[in-house]
Design goal:
single chain; 235 residues; alpha/beta; four-stranded antiparallel sheet; 8 helices; 36% helix; 26% strand; Putative sulfate/thiosulfate import ATP-binding protein CysA
């Protein structure tokens, strides 16, 4: 699913969070929004998902305007930094939750959950609870829970931020391989340059609610468009 954003504006206390933003993301790409905290990255993700509303402007998902689309109609999976797993549900029940809300046949749900658990090599943990898993395991569960509803778009808001360095590195490699297999349009929000450089098809540099530059890692290093990009990107 492609994403088209036209002249998007979001303000808070008369200050721009998103300042007349224009952006196009092609189907199947993994795009990273890279920038300092407070630059508008997460707000953009939440507006695309339908959790927040823009003050003006438009978002189109494969030619369909989102203005009147409910969250569940947008075919979007969302992964948060803090996992957002339900602590009182087993791993199986966490992954199945979105499908049950959509009233999918229980046999299909069971097959789909088992399939996803095998993909992340946690099929022996289906009856565990979140507190019984490591941080890396919980984040893998969060990823496949978002994918269980077979979304057309996957939104990742600082998904590795709560993990230690080695776990982050391992999980990034796993995610890159995983997304290459399933080919879902993905937007990752991060302020970690190494993270963005390692896994992105395209990097979008954000600052003060505006796009500073779009390109590959080496392009951003060699040919920065603005003084901000030059100072923010470390070769």
């Amino acid at each position: 699913m492609s994403i088209l954003i036209e002249n998007l504006v979001k303000k808070s206390n008369n200050q721009y969070i998103l300042n007349h933003l224009n952006l196009e993301i092609q189907t199947g790409k993994l795009v990273t929004l890279l920038g300092p905290s407070g630059s508008g990255k997460s707000t953009l993700l939440r507006i695309i998902a339908g959790f927040e509303e823009a003050d003006s402007g438009s978002i189109w998902l494969t030619g369909k305007k989102t203005t009147n689309l409910k969250i569940q109609e947008r075919q979007i999976g969302f992964v948060f930094q803090d996992y957002a797993l339900f602590p009182h549900l087993t791993i199986f029940e966490n992954i199945a939750f979105g499908m049950r809300i959509r009233q999918i046949d229980p046999k299909i749900i069971h097959f789909r959950v088992q399939e996803l658990l095998q993909l992340i090599e946690l099929e022996n943990k289906s009856e565990y609870y979140p507190y019984q898993l490591s941080g890396g395991q919980k984040q893998r569960i969060a990823f496949v829970r978002a994918l269980a509803i077979e979304p057309k778009i996957l939104l990742l808001d600082e998904p590795f931020g709560a993990l230690d360095r080695q776990v982050r590195q391992n999980l990034r490699r796993w995610l890159c391989h995983f997304l290459n297999e399933i080919q879902v349009t993905t937007i990752l929000v991060t302020h970690d340059q190494q993270e963005a450089f390692e896994i992105s098809d395209e990097i979008i540099i954000f600052n003060n609610g505006q796009i500073q530059q779009i390109g590959l890692a080496q392009e951003l290093i060699d040919y920065p468009y603005t003084s901000f990009v030059q100072s923010f990107i470390l070769p």
